[in-house]
Request: fold
Amino acid sequence: MKRLYLIGGPMGVGKTTVCRELKRLTAPSVFLDGDWCWDMEPFQVTEETKAMVEENIAFLLGQFLGCSAYQTVIFCWVMHQQAILDKLLSALPLEGVEVRKVSLVASPETLKQRIGADVARGLRTWDVLDRSLDRLPLYQNLDTEKLWVDRLTPQEAARILAEGN
Reply:
């Protein structure tokens, strides 16, 4: 049986890093970061670009799920609303697929520290912090497993996910 991980969480919580490690632990696997589908200049969120990105994500995940080379498909994105998860799942071929929906969550203090470290390395700008903190409480309302990552390294979080705990 194939396994699909849908991993959400606020910006800066560590989704990409955890998923890279999870990919290694669950090989043969493939990883898609939703942010890669938004890597455009200028960054534009319109109804047209949003629909295109959602369609591209569903297409890629569907292709990965249909490919016999992979047992595990890992996807991460902010996914802060139940409607985002539901729409994505409804677009995927899920027969014979075990789906794990997980939200990585952390305290505001942890998010501030992690985003601050990313800002210092030139990977983010400070405006991300407010958006991340605004979305943080929304994850408690989602139909997902919650994994608190405040005291976990990315390797520890990935191991927990890989072991199914």
Observations:
- The chain has a mean pLDDT of 95.
- The two ends are 18 Å apart (CA to CA).
- The helical segments are 15-25, 47-66, 82-90, 108-120, 127-135, 154-163.
- The first helix runs from residue 15 to 25.
